[in-house]
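Consider the following assembly input.
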Amino acid sequence: MPRPIILGVVGDSAAGKTTMTRGLVRILGEQQVTAVSTDDYHRYDREQREQRGITPLHPECNYVDIMSQHLRHLRVGEPILKPVYIHSDGTFGPAVYVSPKPFTIVEGLLGYYTESLLDAYDVRVYLAPPEDLRRRWKVKRDTSRRGYTTDQVLRELDKRERDSAQFIRPQERFADVVVSFREGHGRDPDALDAELLLRDSLPHPDLSPVGGSGKGGVAVEELESELMVRIAGDIARDQAAEIEEAIWEKLHFAAHLRSERLGQFVVGNDLQRSASLAVVQLLILYHLVTAKAAIALGGVGPRAEAVDTTERQAAGVQS
Amino acid sequence: MSPRPVILGVVGDSAAGKTTITRGLVRALGEDHVAHICTDDYHRYDRQRRAELGITPLHPDCNYLDILAQDLAHLRRGEAVLKPVYRHSDGTFAPPVYVRPVRFTVIEGLLGYYMPEMLDIYDVRVFLNPPEDLRRRWKVQRDCSRRGYTTDQVLAELDRREADSEAFIRPQRRNADMLISFRPEDSDKDPTHLDAELTLRDDLPHPDLTPFVQDREDGLTLREVQGERQLCIPGRMNPAHAAAIEEAIWERMHFATHLRARRLGEFTVGTELYRSESLALVQLLILYHLVTATATIALGGDGVRSADRAGQPALQTAPVGSAEEPA
């Protein structure tokens, strides 16, 4: 088996990591994906964190060294014995054996914290929703699924702010793709806009033919070494389809992945679909599938090639 | 950066005396300087699951040997690991614990020499090989008193394990540098005076004990058998003689005199503390290798094993005939 493709999905607590990851797992197929949450690498359980006055966002509160050790094993196709943190009661369980599969998705708070971690990923995504939206998401989730009260969650958010600013948010600069879902200006308040920052650390598909002027819900803006893509939450169906089609065309060798499941997410027990989420997931999928194809053909992965290109350009070499 | 840890393997069947040997060494080296890893922690199935599957903990498939090999390699490089935890008291698993590399690592367990890629990790490889009837007695004693089994259960378990012992555990003997058998004298069941029979293999440079070999019943005997040295330390060794031998070994470890304060050779039966002269001497021989390996590594070498020594730079010699070559 060629080595697994590793995707990082990093962001603050309740930034939407699991929603993003779960969607990708559904599309790629559970048998194809190892999903690892870095919360499992917490050093202290909930009670110990309370006693020590340390937040899970602090690097000292996590076995960052073990995280990167395990990631390196997965990257070369070796199994790991992964620790288990139980969110429902904040304690640890026995370790579980995880075999490598074609794709590994690592989601968590500090996934890009050290250089050795950074080197492990083929694709690095960072989720950066506006703070007020993230706070609302966190209250909703932690009160419904992690057994906290609203007051506890709000107090916890305040307690974490310093570490968020110091350790979590600075990781944004290492991402190939920065994703911000934000409240739309359209009629439907649930239809979130997606703002994508595409950095040239990876070769992204060319979206300019479908973007351009911003009419009908897509705007593409070229910045210095980044591309800013805005997708309106209430984008017209046919235009969303046009973008998706443009990306799928470049993924002709992965046509079997085409499915209706892109963009699905759950609120409570309610399955919903977001057109902007679908486009974002498809873009990430594009990178995963491209990386896999590059490695199957004997390459080292898209990142190294992107770096090569940059270096070549920097050295003034014409291609 | 601190030098890499020195790694000792203590392998043998269940109740072969691994913990007794290890505990004395850990005390001698100082608990803060030893990471003690028991490979039972790498069991794949808990006790209940093993019963359901009809598999014994001695079977390689019942253990995450791949993960064990990974962790050993990390420790040897001086990296920390997150070690799984198996609880013997109730046969279940607990959350893993973080193990920092320290000066010495002792790996104790059933299948430590099973995979060829594991072998190179050890600086010193000990295999414990007591006679089966003695090991059975030890196992009944321990499992009934400390692991909550009845005598019948232990005996039934021993029978059930025999095929796997034969297939997987005992063949590991061939990979040991020191093969150690404690055995009772013919007429005597006194646990404080077990003879120790050692097979010393040439992969490690063992200290020369020939000056102490005397033709007497309470002294050392040393034989060459098929290229291996067999050393017998009688359980009832003359104390003055034993002291002289220990002194000679300590002398060769003059750089580690701070370790001398600790008492070797202690063991417990139930809650009683005993001391055995032969056990002390065996532990001292192992200690000699550990301390020598540390010193060698501190001086820039790879280790004391012949394979490690082979990797060290040798004297450069001119290629034969090079002088005669025409200009």
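The mean pLDDT of chain B is 87. Ask yourself how this observation constrains the way the partners meet.
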